[in-house]
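If it is no trouble, might I ask you for a protein's amino acid sequence along with its backbone structure tokens?
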Amino acid sequence: MKKITYSLIVLLVISLSAFALSLVTYKVKSPYEVKFEGGRISGKFETLKANIQFDKVDPGQSKISASIDVESIATGFFIKNNHAKDALDADNHPTITFTSTAVSKSGNAYQAIGNLNMKGVTKPVTIHFTFDDKGNEGLFKGSFKVKPKDFNITRNGSPEELTISLTVPVTKG
């Protein structure tokens, strides 16, 4: 009886250890892309910082937070860069941030629901993404849509909707 109890305890500990080890911390690796597109506006952000704890087996355990430096906006045109920084009020709101509140899996893809803060306004967004696990490295690819007016971005020429596309290579760490 003691052997059976001991065996069950060992099996339980091993199972729980394996489950706990599936949550992995990832670091962003260059080159990454954070692109935006909508109407006549397109460009990218050249600075991304992120804390990613991702569990592909049990995504509900995952936590994702990221920040982008508004000054890193690149539209390909100096004047458009300045207009975009003004529209985002970079002097008073130098970063755009995302913090997940829930991560789930749907088929072969995932979704991160969370709060996006841009220009001092926080709104819920859902990022649909995939994760390609390559051992010690991986690749997150995803996108989401925002309405600039929801974030008090109302300059002339602002599109009704922007699509944000993310390609983020990572390493375990």
The two ends are 43 Å apart (CA to CA). DSSP finds two helices and eleven strands in the chain. The first helix runs from residue 2 to 20. Residues 23-172 form a domain with the Lipocalin fold (CATH 2.40.128.110).
